[in-house]
Design brief:
This protein is an alpha+beta fold. The chain is 32% helix and 20% strand. It is built from 5 helices and 6 strands, in the order ααβαβαβββαβ. The strands form 2 sheets. It has a 4-stranded antiparallel sheet with strand order 1-2-6-3, sandwiched between helices.
């Protein structure tokens, strides 16, 4: 599939089939995603692949309304980064985007759930997830990407979806 087709086809999928995603595919997605560019090529991002159903459920409960797509997700990837990097948020965002595009290329669906600086009932979502998957101090969590085989169909985007007024050439 061409990159432009992947971009058009990528949609947030919130309902997944009860079908396991192979560890090999998840590993490949993680490896290719970590080839994303980063500030000064510092590569501050680490990924945690989660497939244990009880852990996914506990992660979901850390921000239940926003992470409800994890209810049927057979896998998720926790996108973390070393907070000493001044570009960690940007770098982690690029890696997360690569993950979502790679999912499409593998015939998978995905959904991004934001964790950075989010709270549920006064409790840090990042802190809760760090406990669940054992992320060390000094690392922050940008987001959770739910992954699985789509159990819903969404139309692909088209270039008609683009607001051309948001494109400026040479000046605003």
């Amino acid at each position: 599939m061409e990159l432009k087709d992947v971009i058009l086809k990528r949609r947030s999928i919130r309902k997944f089939k009860e079908k396991e995603v192979s560890p090999e595919i998840l590993s490949e997605i993680a490896k290719y995603a970590l080839l994303a560019p980063s500030g000064r090529n510092s590569k501050p991002v680490d990924l945690v692949i989660v497939t244990e159903k009880d852990k996914i459920e506990r992660i979901m409960k850390a921000r239940e309304s926003a992470f409800s797509f994890l209810k049927t997700a057979p896998a998720c990837i926790v996108v973390t980064a070393d907070e000493t990097s001044s570009t960690w948020i940007s770098d982690a965002s690029i890696v997360a985007t690569y993950i979502q595009l790679l999912c499409v290329d593998y015939g998978l669906g995905s959904c991004w759930g934001h964790a950075h600086d989010r709270f549920q009932d006064g409790v840090s979502v990042e802190g809760k997830i760090k406990e669940i998957v054992g992320i060390p101090d000094g690392y922050r969590i940008l987001c959770i990407i739910g992954i699985g085989y789509p159990d819903e169909e969404k139309d692909a985007h088209t270039l008609k979806d683009v607001d051309n007024n948001k494109i400026h050439v040479e000046k605003w």
